[in-house]
Amino acid sequence: MTAPRKKRREAFLLGNEAVVEGALAAGCTFYAGYPITPSTEIMECMAKRLPHVPDGAFIQMEDEIASMGAVIGASLAGRKAMTATSGPGFSLMQEQIGYAAMTETPLVLVNVMRGGASTGLPTSPGQGDVQQARWGAHGDHPIIVLSAADVPECVEMTVTAFNFAEKYRSPVILLLDEITAHTREKIELPEPGDFEVFSRLTPTMPPEWYKPYEETMRGVPPMPPIGSGYRFHVTGLTHDPLGFPTSRPEEVRALTERQFRKIDRFFEDIQIVEHVETADAEVVVIAYGCVARSARLAVKQAREAGVRAGLLVLKTLYPFPRRHVEPLLRNCRLAVVPELNMGQLSREVKRVNEGYTTVRTINRIDGQIITPSQILKEIA
Amino acid sequence: MGRNRVVVYPDWCKGCGICAAFCPKKVFAVGQDGKARVVNEEACVNCGFCEPHCPDFAVLVIPGETDQTPCPPETAPDPAEQPAAKEVKP
Amino acid sequence: MAEITQLIHQYLRHNKKFPLVFCPGCGHGIVLGSLVRSVHALGLPKDDVVIVAGIGCSGRIAAYVDFNTVHTTHGRALTVATGIKMANPKLTVIAVMGDGDAFSIGGNHLIHAARRNIGVTALVLNNFIYGMTGGQCSSTTPEGAYSHTCPQGQLESAFDIVELTRAAGAAGVSRGTVYHVKELDALLAEAISRPGFNLVEALTPCFTQYGRGNGFKSAVEMFKWLKASCLPVERYEKLEDRTGKLPIGTFVRRDVAGLETRWANMRQALAAKKGGAA
What we know:
The complex is a heterotrimer of chains A (380), B (90) and C (278). Helices cover 37% and strands 21% of the residues of chain A. Chain A is α/β, with parallel strands linked by helices and 380 residues long. Chain A has two domains: 10-188, Thiamin diphosphate (ThDP)-binding fold, Pyr/PP domains (Rossmann fold); 274-379, Rossmann fold, CATH 3.40.50. In chain A, strands 2, 3, 4, 5, 6, 7, 8 and 14 form an eight-stranded mixed sheet that branches. In chain A, strands 11-13-12-15-16 form a five-stranded mixed sheet, with helices on both faces. In chain A, helix 1 packs parallel to helix 6 (151-168). The two termini of chain A are 36 Å apart. The model of chain A has no long low-confidence stretch (mean pLDDT 96). With 90 residues, chain B is an alpha+beta fold. Chain B has a domain at 5-65: Alpha-Beta Plaits (2-Layer Sandwich), CATH 3.30.70. Chain B has helices spanning 18-22, 50-53; strands spanning 5-8, 28-30, 36-38, 59-62. In chain B, the strands form two sheets. In chain B, strands 1-4 form a two-stranded antiparallel sheet. In chain B, a hairpin with a 5-residue loop joins strand 2 and strand 3. With 278 residues, chain C is an alpha/beta fold. In chain C, strands 2-1-3-4-8-7-10-9 form an eight-stranded mixed sheet, sandwiched between helices. A two-stranded antiparallel sheet of chain C has the order 5-6. In chain C, strand 1, helix 3 and strand 2 form a beta-alpha-beta unit. In chain C, helix 1 (2-11) packs across helix 2 (28-41), helix 2 (28-41) crosses helix 8 and helix 6 packs across helix 7 (161-168). Chains in contact: A-C, B-C. At the B-C interface, helix 1, helix 2 and strand 4 of B face helix 1, helix 2, helix 8, helix 10 and strand 9 of C. Chain C: It comes from Solidesulfovibrio magneticus str. Maddingley MBC34.
């Protein structure tokens, strides 16, 4: 952030409202959605703001499936587009997430996680959608999943989500939880120039040379908006570099491998974490979302009590930030993963741990937050 | 009359028989190979039925010279003028 | 006449494999031709036309034409079309769907697209059956007809597409058949040029999956049936005995602005108010 130093506009915002600030700062001009607790404020705020944004368009669709459809359509037509949802709505969106991944359509989906399965606990926090965010759509597909722990981070990570979506032509899921979404904090509103903002590469070659799914150096082919003179075919079927359906084994493999490679190659850029006193830590807490806030205090208190504790806040959940997690696990005697679920991200931690150290989980699924003292008890 | 040229692309024809069945002048027949072929080109009056009704874009009618007698207006028959339908499905 | 075929060739993607993937006698190719002719008649540049298709035999149409083409998921064509139209109202967006696509899995999207009158043309290829999956009944399979999932005869009644879309509020509703091609061309051209949501139902026989199981001896017979049973709506309404007859033509013509236009007008009004206040 390069901050222009004059009196900055401040506001007292919900996490959900901060998402809207971030989205608009990133250049979002299209929102389609369906109301669902606890994500609704994002939609309401967009409905108010978008009519005033140049080229802004907002539409309330008939369900979450339709919302994702409209967002995909808008993105194909060249817009930076997003939607937001929670719980059951996220399940309904899975089919279209798979379509966006297959057609490499950039979009941002904010999922404000609530508690429990099915209708569950609509007004309580949860983190039970972590594995679903990664694997919810059928078939192998790459995807980027981010998270945010407080209101300023909601702004920052929404901008990041748009940047990743545009840079890598991928759907990006931003996971919030009810606590983060409904906490009101004072923040400085983003000004133009605060954030580096990316837009998708568009082709420069003549239309007849353009191959929409061509292998390129970055693995991310340029993408023209529909109606710009580049006429091509978009399909959810496995397709060849020209975009037409194919089932030839070599073409199918090339497509899927490129889709994974475009994300794999940029692990360094995509995997965002925050280290808090991890340099000499013998006990490491690995947390994300609202739980990371409790963990921050717990680690501070543990340090005060003489325990060499550290905290790794994960802002990127998938691709799993292995290169940050792995070295910590090799050098600590205990890793603690507190989560508002039965153990979803801890699976990933255990996977990369490969038996090096003890991984302990703290799981809470009663709709209440994990308190600092609960974490402190495990680490001190 | 009789100057119109009628062509069937054998590669695109699937032999559904629509042209043969509906051509008012019986210009087409479906051959042994399961493809439509032109059997009575001289009779073609360029009525305009076969080209848009070929589901595979496999029929081409090239009209004759302009000094030719204009074709009689034999457009797609009016459905209401047809004899009563047999049992109707949907 | 030769120009009809030549015209179609101008709009086809010649890097695709021909003949079309459809079965012999399938009407889908005829609808494709009709679509091309009506777009051509309206003088729309290829770059400004977007075909959004769903899944099923009808979805295969999109790949063959040299427009901007999007082959979406099953039943969701209208949602993607809505997004494209809202994002860029200058484009002519045509959603090509089958009967299962539009009225079964996508039924909710269809009635809402009609209600909000988004400026999209819905071209529904109704063949009374799920063709691609091998002949299961759809929501337009007539009562009593046979299919693999109603081998004893369909017990449910079929949707009346015209009445359904009329009630939902569409700006235009029409029905044509692949036998009455010239009329279908005109209906499509009219639908594409009218603002708001316009639906064109094209009856297109599926001999392979529907006809064979329901007493038709060939695809040609199905065309003969269309010829015999469909008549213009004006004449249909004068009939005493309407058994076995189906009206074709335009049923609904409403003068409404598309949602994208109403949205633009609202934005303009807001801007004017803001400018006036300052």
